[in-house]
Design brief:
- 40% of the residues lie in helices and 17% in strands.
- It is of the alpha+beta class and 614 residues long.
- Among the domains are: 235-355, Succinate dehydrogenase/fumarate reductase flavoprotein, catalytic domain (Flavocytochrome C3, Chain A, domain 1, Alpha-Beta Complex), CATH 3.90.700; 438-556, Methane Monooxygenase Hydroxylase, Chain G, domain 1, CATH 1.20.58.100.
- The longest helix has 25 residues, at 503-527.
- The relative contact order is 0.16.
- The structure holds flavin-adenine dinucleotide.
- Flavin-adenine dinucleotide binds at residues 7-13, 30-33, 35, 38-40, 42-47, 129-130, 156-158, 193-196, 205-206, 209, 213-214, 246, 248, 356-357, 379-381, 393-396, 399.
C-alpha cells in the first residue's frame, strides 16, 4: 500500500487525509498541535458556495467572477473555476456529515452575505463554522485511524524535508515535541497543509502556531514561494494586549455598520459614503485602507478620541431583536464581550485592522505540486486561489477544495515517479543535519532574549509591511530583518538542557524560519512597483498590468539567506483583466459578468476542470 505523509491537520490536511485514506492510501498525519486545535478551529463566519438558496441568480460562474475580480486578477483562473464549481458539493458533503449549519425557517441551509459580493453565498454554523467543519472531519478521520489507515502524530514539528539526490521529496524529519526525539518518516508523497504565517506580524488575528515555519523550511530547501508580498489585513479586529482578535466580516454581512467621529464630532459612515455600490461589504483590502485613511489622514476617532473606528450592530439588535442576532453572531460577540467587558448588543464595538491571512504561499502547479517533485502544498500554505486579495469565506473553501482533489492527483503522480533511492544514506544525512542545527540552537548562549528579538521583528513587520507601504519603509524593514538574522547567533536559549517539552527550542528554530521568509515578503513588496489588491504602495498608486500582471516567485539563496525574485505570467484565459472598483452597483457588475460568461463558455468547455473531482 502506498504511503502518504500529510503535515498539518487543519481543514486542508484533514480533508486530504480523509480522501486519501478512503482511496486506499496509508496516511501519516503530523501536526504541531493536536489537530482539533489547528488554526481552522478559529474560523468564524462561514464558507462560500454559490447554491443560490435565496433565488438571487447566483451561480458558480459568478462566484468565480467575483473571486477573480476581488483578487485584482492575480489568481490563475483555471483552479479558481474548479473551486467555485465544486463548492456546492463540498457544503452538501459537510451537511451530510452532520455539521449544524444554520437553517432557514423552511429547514434549508441558510446563507449570509460576505465582502466583495452582495449575494447570500456563505453557509455558516453560527459564528463557529471552522470548529464545526474541523470537528466533523476529525470524526471521519478517526474511523480511518481505527482501521490503521491513518496514524496521527501530535504534537510533532516539521524540521526538514527529505529530498533524494534526484530532487524528489521522499519524506520528513520531525521532532516529537513531548520528548525532543528526532524521527524520520519516508513516504511516496509529502503534502504540506501547514497553514498561514500571520504570527510574523505583531498585530494579527492568527494563532501563535501560525509562524510560517513549515513553508519557510520548504522554501529554504528549494521550493518557490509565490506572491509572498500579498498579506491580507482584515479591517475589523479588536486590539488586545497579547494579540488582536477578529470580529468577523459576517457581522457586516448581517448588517453591522462601520463609522467614526470626524473632527467636528459628526458620525461618518465612511464606507457607505465612499463606496455606495457595496457599502460595508467592500472587500477587505479596500475596507482596511479606508479605515487607515479615515483614522490617519482624516483624524476620525472614537468618542474617547482613540485612533479606531466603530463596528455597530446596535440598530440591527433594535430592528431584529437580540435573540435573532445572537443566533447568527453569538460566538463572535461573546469574544468581544469577554475581552473588553463591553456588551456589543448595546454598544458599538471598537475595531481596527490587523494582519489576517497570507494570499502568498508555496508555488504549486494546477495539481498542487510544488517545484520539488513529490512535495505538494494545500490550504493557506499554497498561493493558488486568491490572487492579490482573498474574499471572505473563500479560504475554508480553498482549503477543503485542494484537500478534496488530492486522490486523483496522487494516483497520477505515482504512475510516473521512480521510487528507487538509497534511503539509509539519505536518512543519516538529514538526521545529522537536523541534529547539528538543534545543537547549534542549544548552544546559543549570547545576550539576546529570543522572545524580545521576535517582538521587535514582528513590530517592524506590522509597521512597514502591511496596509500602506513605500520604498523607504520597506527598505528599512528589509535591513532590520537582515540585521536581526545576524543577531540570531547572539541569542540566549536559556533552557539548553531539557528535551521534554522544550518550547524555547521549538520557538527559536521557528524564529529563524520566520525571519528568512520575511525577507521574501519584503523583497516581493519592494520589487512590485505598483498597487494591486492588498499590496498598496503610496509611491506607486496604480495597478500596472503591463509590468506586474505576474506571479512573484521567490527562490531562496542559501549563501546570502536572501530571496531571488522572478515573475511568471498569470493565466487569464477565461476572463480578461478589467479595472477593479466597488463604487458602481452590484447589479451592473453582475449584468456585465453574465455577458462575459457567454464569451468564456467555449474556452471553459475545452478545460477539463472536473477531472480531479472524483
Ligand atoms: C480568526 C480567523 C477567522 C477566520 N474565519 C474564516 C471564515 O469564516 N471563513 C474562511 O473562509 N476563512 C476564515 N479564516 C481563514 C481560515 O480560517 C484559514 O485560512 C484556514 O482555516 C487555514 O486552514 P489550513 O488547513 O490551511 O491551516 P490550519 O488550520 O492553520 O492548519 C495548519 C496545520 O498545520 C500544522 N502545522 C503548522 N506548522 C507546523 C509545523 N511546523 N510542523 C508540523 N505541523 C505544523 C498545525 O498544527 C495545523 O494542524 C479565518 C482566519 C482567522 C485568523
Amino acid at each position: 500500500m502506498k504511503q502518504v505523509i500529510v503535515v498539518g491537520g487543519g481543514l486542508a490536511g484533514l480533508m486530504a487525509t480523509l480522501r486519501l485514506g478512503e482511496r486506499g492510501y496509508r496516511v501519516k498525519l503530523f501536526s504541531i498541535v493536536p489537530v482539533k486545535r489547528s488554526h481552522s478551529v478559529c474560523a468564524q463566519g462561514g464558507i462560500n458556495a454559490a447554491i443560490n438558496a435565496k433565488g438571487e441568480g447566483d451561480s458558480p460562474w459568478l462566484h468565480f467572477y467575483e473571486t477573480i475580480y476581488g483578487g485584482d486578477f492575480l489568481a490563475n483562473q483555471v483552479p479558481v473555476l474548479g473551486m467555485a464549481e465544486l463548492a456546492p458539493k463540498i457544503v452538501y458533503l459537510f451537511d451530510r456529515m452532520g455539521v449544524p449549519f444554520n437553517r432557514t425557517p423552511e429547514g434549508n441551509i441558510d446563507f449570509r452575505r460576505f465582502g466583495g459580493t452582495l449575494f447570500h453565498r456563505t453557509a455558516f454554523a453560527g459564528a463557529t463554522t471552522g470548529q464545526q467543519l474541523l470537528y466533523a472531519l476529525d470524526e471521519q478521520v478517526r474511523k480511518l485511524e481505527v482501521d490503521q489507515k491513518v496514524i496521527k502524530y501530535e504534537p510533532y514539528q516539521l524540521m526538514k524535508l527529505i529530498i533524494s539526490d534526484d530532487g524528489v521529496c521522499r519524506g520528513v524529519v520531525v521532532m516529537n515535541l513531548y520528548n525532543g526525539e528526532i524521527e524520520t518518516h519516508l513516504a511516496n508523497v509529502v503534502i504540506l497543509a501547514t497553514g498561514g504565517l500571520g504570527y510574523m506580524f505583531k498585530e494579527n488575528t492568527n494563532s501563535i502556531i501560525n509562524t510560517g515555519s513549515a513553508g519557510s523550511i520548504a522554501y529554504q530547501q528549494g521550493a518557490y514561494f509565490a506572491n509572498p508580498e500579498f498579506i491580507q489585513v482584515h479591517p475589523t479586529a479588536m486590539k488586545g494586549y497579547d494579540k488582536n482578535r477578529l470580529i468577523s466580516e459576517s457581522v457586516r454581512g448581517e448588517g453591522g455598520r462601520v463609522w467614526a467621529y470626524d473632527s467636528n464630532g459628526r458620525k461618518v459612515y465612511f464606507l457607505e459614503e465612499w463606496y455606495p455600490g457595496y457599502g460595508n461589504l467592500v472587500p477587505r483590502d479596500i475596507a482596511s485602507r479606508a479605515i487607515f485613511k479615515a483614522v490617519h489622514e482624516l483624524g476620525y476617532h472614537t468618542a474617547e478620541g482613540e485612533p479606531m473606528v466603530y463596528l455597530d450592530i446596535t440598530e440591527l439588535v433594535k430592528e431584529k431583536g437580540k435573540d435573532y442576532v445572537k443566533a447568527k453572531l453569538g460566538g463572535v460577540l461573546e469574544i468581544y464581550e469577554k475581552f473588553t467587558g463591553v456588551d456589543p448588543y448595546s454598544n458599538p464595538m471598537k475595531i481596527f485592522p490587523a494582519v489576517h491571512y497570507s494570499m502568498g504561499g508555496l508555488w504549486v502547479d494546477y495539481n498542487q505540486m510544488t517545484n520539488i517533485p513529490g512535495l505538494f502544498a494545500i490550504g493557506e500554505q499554497d498561493y493558488q486561489y486568491h490572487g492579490a486579495n482573498r474574499l471572505g469565506a473563500n479560504s475554508l473553501l480553498s482549503c477543503l477544495y485542494a484537500g478534496y482533489i488530492m486522490p486523483n492527483i496522487i494516483d497520477n503522480y505515482l504512475k510516473q515517479v521512480d521510487s528507487n533511492f538509497d534511503s539509509q544514506k539519505l536518512i543519516k544525512r538529514y538526521v545529522d543535519e537536523v541534529k547539528d542545527e538543534l545543537n547549534r540552537i542549544r548552544n546559543l548562549k549570547g545576550s539576546i532574549n529570543p522572545y524580545k528579538l521576535a517582538d521587535e521583528f514582528r513590530t517592524v513587520m506590522s509597521k512597514y509591511v502591511t496596509v500602506i507601504r513605500n520604498q523607504e519603509g520597506l527598505n528599512y524593514a528589509y535591513n532590520f530583518v537582515k540585521e536581526a538574522l545576524e543577531k540570531y547567533n547572539d541569542i540566549n536559549i536559556y533552557d539548553n538542557q531539557s528535551y521534554y517539552a522544550n518550547t524555547t527550542l521549538s520557538y527559536v528554530k521557528q524564529l529563524r524560519d520566520m525571519m528568512i521568509l520575511a525577507l521574501a515578503i519584503i523583497k516581493g513588496a519592494i520589487e512590485r512597483k505598483e498597487s494591486r489588491g492588498a499590496h498598496y504602495r503610496i509611491d506607486y498608486e496604480n495597478r500596472d498590468d503591463i509590468n506586474y500582471l505576474k506571479t512573484t516567485k521567490a527562490k531562496f539563496n542559501p549563501n546570502t539567506l536572501e530571496p531571488e525574485i522572478t515573475y511568471e505570467e498569470v493565466d487569464t484565459r477565461i476572463l480578461k483583466p478589467q479595472e477593479r472598483e466597488y463604487k458602481s452597483s452590484h447589479k451592473e457588475k453582475i449584468a456585465k459578468a453574465l455577458k462575459l460568461y457567454e464569451q468564456a463558455k467555449p474556452i471553459i468547455e475545452q478545460l477539463n476542470i472536473y477531472a480531479n473531482f472524483v
